[in-house]
């Protein structure tokens, strides 16, 4: 069966306030052991390959198999890191070996009374059979931010 060749674009911004200092929220991304504690789909995924290289030009990989579902693969490159202020990545997603999307994500950390305002802004391009998944990316990211919130509290 031939794959229909098309793309879709999606962009979104999610903002969350976490009741911890900026340094604590930052470390949840910058420290590998902390990131492993909250990143991913928890018990819904059997972990696979993992790589963590938090520096400009460094690459992260997170792969896992959803129970009774597909293998998801995330590969990111850090393009800009300003300590306790912002992280910018470009990343690609694959589902069962098929290239699903390419995105740029900007993560911002702002001090507020009582904690940190975290803002995730993303611009993505979704390929071929995955074109309709663009709007769902925000839902997946909301799940990650909820997991981060649970970890920080």
Characterise the protein shown here:
This protein is an alpha+beta fold. Helices cover 21% and strands 50% of the residues. The protein has one domain: START domain (Alpha-D-Glucose-1,6-Bisphosphate, Chain A, domain 4). The protein has helices at 22-30, 32-38, 137-152, and strands at residues 7-18, 45-51, 59-66, 71-82, 86-95, 98-112, 115-127. Helix 1 crosses helix 2. The longest helix has 16 residues, at 137-152. The termini are far apart.
Morphology call = globular
Rg over CA atoms, rounded to whole Å, is 16 Å
Low-confidence stretches: none
CATH architecture: 2-Layer Sandwich
What is the CATH topology descriptor? Alpha-D-Glucose-1,6-Bisphosphate, Chain A, domain 4
What's the number of helices? 3
Approximately how much beta-strand content do the residues carry?
over 45%
- The overall pLDDT, averaged over residues, is 91
Number of domains: 1
List the keywords.
single chain; 153 residues; alpha+beta; Alpha-D-Glucose-1,6-Bisphosphate, Chain A, domain 4; 7-stranded antiparallel β-sheet; 3 helices; 21% helix; globular
Brief write-up:
With 153 residues, this protein is α+β, with helices and mostly antiparallel strands. It is built from three helices and seven strands, in the order βααββββββα.
